[in-house]
Amino acid sequence: MENDAARSRHDDGSAGDANYGLIGGGYTNYRQPDPDIARFILNALGDARTIVNIGAGAGSYEPTDRAVTPVEPSASMRAQRPAHLAPAVDAVAERLPFADGSFDAALASFTVHQWTDLSAGLAEMRRVSSGPVVILSCDPDALDCGWLPSYAPEAIAVEASRYPAIDRIVAGLGGTVEVIPVPIPLHCTDGFGEAYYGRPERLLDPGARRANSAWSFVDASVGTRFVAALGRDLEDGTWDRRFGHLRTQPHFEGSLRLIVGRPG
């Protein structure tokens, strides 16, 4: 049973190791599901009609033509779900309040790094799904791509320490597992860090950084230094001399991965 301290954190808007009561405001202004990424997820879900979405947040990547049961422990994020989506169940990945095989598929996008017990969460996803388990995450070993590590190494180091290794997810799922690299489109509407690979100016916006939980784990001085250095290099052309080719690169092969586990 969840202890009182953990429950109070969730009531205050926390989820896993990030406090979305503090950083979740305005999240949906920056984190909208990207159509290109969504196609990878829909393909992996196949013909599943009933889906449980773990760590559902404000509803990104929930299919609107299926019966979706969202699960989200953060009150702040549950409050930002649009009216056309189902209300989220207040629960955590490690203890799902559903019977075995309740759903055709289970989905988790940008959430496994928030869980307190990865193995338990993966086992629960497998338990409640009779079909595919679909997980969108980032490979921590590939987070050093692009320009962002040059300007915010502390934030990248935090992300690399939080995201579980892809091999751990594969092992935790069991069965037949496929790991699919997901290219990030230039005008990606889901504003995780690499989404701005060709639009560096966007990350000068404090709201854009706040919508990436890694920034909440570094000292405020890191953000101040980041804005000063990036702003200067954009103004004098240094960034464009080093990375300007990214402004017109249609896709970025970064750390984004889709892990699809099937039983058997």
TrEMBL record:
One of its GO terms (molecular function) is S-adenosylmethionine-dependent methyltransferase activity. This is Methyltransferase type 11 domain-containing protein. Residues 54-128 form the Methyltransferase type domain. InterPro entries: Methyltransf_11, SAM-dependent_MTases_sf. The lineage of its organism: Bacteria, Pseudomonadati, Pseudomonadota, Alphaproteobacteria, Hyphomicrobiales. It holds the Pfam family Methyltransf_11.
